[in-house]
Please model this.
Amino acid sequence: EAGVAQSPRYKIIEKRQSVAFWCNPISGHATLYWYQQILGQGPKLLIQFQNNGVVDDSQLPKDRFSAERLKGVDSTLKIQPAKLEDSAVYLCASSLVWGEQYFGPGTRLTVT
Amino acid sequence: GQQVMQIPQYQHVQEGEDFTTYCNSSTTLSNIQWYKQRPGGHPVFLIQLVKSGEVKKQKRLTFQFGEAKKNSSLHITATQTTDVGTYFCAGPFQGGKLIFGQGTELSVKP
Model:
């Protein structure tokens, strides 16, 4: 069974630029999550989708972050414009509905 | 607010010594999950505990869920270098949102 795929793996941008991350969850998983993990901290949930509907986006900085999950499969997370404090690893995870979450390898974003 | 706290933040042990990390929630949880993240890697699910007072074992790892379902622990017996990594507990809060603790980073000296 293929795992959660994410791209790119690494991205370096300057502040005020925009960036987009892509995630392909495990086939058949209804729930998709985007997390931000700052070095030395646990993952922080940014947004949670069930199929193509948003379940929770209470911690998503909506003035600069946006996410979509078209057709209830792939998802993209965008940051526009980026700030220095957005430097982190962005993890995508998926699960059947609730329960065990399978994480992708993450995208390491550096904002200079 | 919704919080999950873990202690200690770091633990350095000699290979063969035991290791324990503790997790506390600000509210009662329906279940608690544990994940392991190797250096440079992504979190990997270890186990989920659901029942009050539940104890589960996976080889040298023992997981406990407190009677009040507000705390949990992970104990590793006779650590090995393969146990190196950060161990996170995570609990579901309102709407099923999973809140992760800040993790305990384990280093093992051979």
Observations:
- The two ends of chain A are 37 Å apart (CA to CA).
- The interface with chain B takes residues 33, 40-45, 48, 55-56, 58, 91, 93, 98-106 of chain A (CB under 8 Å).
